[in-house]
Design a protein that fits this description.
Layout (H helix, E strand, L loop, with lengths): L29 H22 L5 H4 L3 E7 L1 H4 L4 E2 L4 E2 L2 E7 L7 H4 L1 H9 L7 E7 H9 L3 H9 L1 E5 L13 H31 L3 H24 L8 H11 L12 H12 L3 H4 L7 H33 L4
Parallel strand pairs: 4-5
Antiparallel strand pairs: 1-4, 1-6, 2-3
Helix pairs in contact: 1-5, 6-7, 8-9, 8-13, 9-10, 9-11, 9-13
Length: about 325
């Protein structure tokens, strides 16, 4: 069941609370606590392997400074309905001591792969990696994504003396100006990708159509995340982006049907298209699949525009700008 999913629309503009970050996960069922312990340990172990034998000082002395659980499992409004095709992901922020250590392919790919394949971890895990300076810069700029983590996150691990900056939330006027610009820019990019996909379909270029539909969906999620949080991860993983967006806005869930195996297979086709539709001779997608994915992406686009404009209305009212 959902746990208070409508508890909070988003971080309130002007919210200046800066609580001490929690360190316990007692609010979670024991199985989830055990899974998080495995996730944390795998991250720590594989990072140690990745920097072993290093000679460069930044790498040799590299450290994980914090591992933070954020999102629905931090707020206690997760969803666990695996039988119905919907299950909240664990969202993990890893803070490291040097910018170079944020390279996913170089330092975190093995850990991610092991976590994904571990049968003892029963739900998807998303990992973002940043330096403390990057996180604190976001906090001092008042970016909602980081402010939410500072408020709701749970430190699964942290080095002594490593502190997050005091959040300085954006003014309503600045938040509105940024969100409005993001919406205008990214909606046009979504529409362009949908137009290109339709052209590819008309010419029988099914793989190109699948790739471009992936791009349209990725841009739609990017649009929403930038409007609502001012942050989007450095990722093309559609499932990860979907998870972050749906965590903020449950109405986006309905864009991708997931009740049947066919529904879930079609989302996987869209997700895999970013790489496989371009490079794999084994990637195949049928006309019915393209129609269904096109409909889902168009629905996603419309939902993103609707909820984003509602958010702009909220910000506009705070600024005192007439509709």
């Amino acid at each position: 069941m959902r746990h208070g999913v409508h508890r909070r629309l988003a971080t309130c503009v002007g919210d200046r609370e800066n609580p001490v970050m929690r360190k316990d996960v007692d609010h979670l069922p024991s199985i989830q606590q055990e899974e998080l312990a495995l996730v944390r340990q795998t991250l720590m172990d594989e990072f140690a392997v990745a920097i072993a034998g290093a000679t460069q000082p930044w790498k040799k002395n590299g450290t994980i400074q914090k591992v933070i659980l954020f999102g629905s499992y931090g707020r206690s409004d997760w969803v666990d309905e695996a039988a119905n095709g919907y299950q909240s992901d664990f969202d993990i922020l890893v803070i490291v001591s040097h910018k170079n250590l944020t390279d996913i392919a170089e330092y975190w790919y093995v850990a991610e792969d092991k976590i994904q394949r571990d049968p003892a971890i029963g739900r998807p895990v998303n990992i973002i990696v940043h330096t403390l300076d990057e996180v604190n810069d976001g906090l001092t700029r008042g970016e909602y994504f980081w402010v939410d983590i500072a408020r709701d996150g749970i430190a699964l691990y942290e080095l002594p003396g490593v502190a997050l900056a005091t959040p300085k939330p954006l003014t309503a006027a600045d938040a509105y100006e940024m969100a409005d610009a993001y919406l205008t820019d990214w909606m046009s990019k979504v529409d362009a990708a949908l137009e290109i996909a339709a052209f590819c379909v008309s010419k029988g270029h099914d793989k190109d159509a699948a790739f471009t539909l992936h791009q349209a969906a990725e841009r739609a999620y990017t649009c929403f995340l930038l409007v609502r949080t001012h942050y989007v991860p450095r990722s093309h993983n559609l499932k990860f982006l979907r998870s972050l967006a749906e965590d903020k806005e449950p109405r986006l869930v309905a864009a991708w049907p997931r009740a049947t195996k066919l529904d879930r297979r079609r989302f996987e086709l869209a997700k895999r298209a970013y790489v496989e539709a371009r490079y794999s001779t084994n990637y195949e997608i049928g006309a019915d699949d393209l129609v269904a994915i096109t409909n889902a992406v168009q629905d996603l686009r419309d939902r993103v525009e609707t909820v984003s404009r509602e958010w702009l209305d909220v910000l506009r009212a705070k600024v005192g700008i007439a509709s």
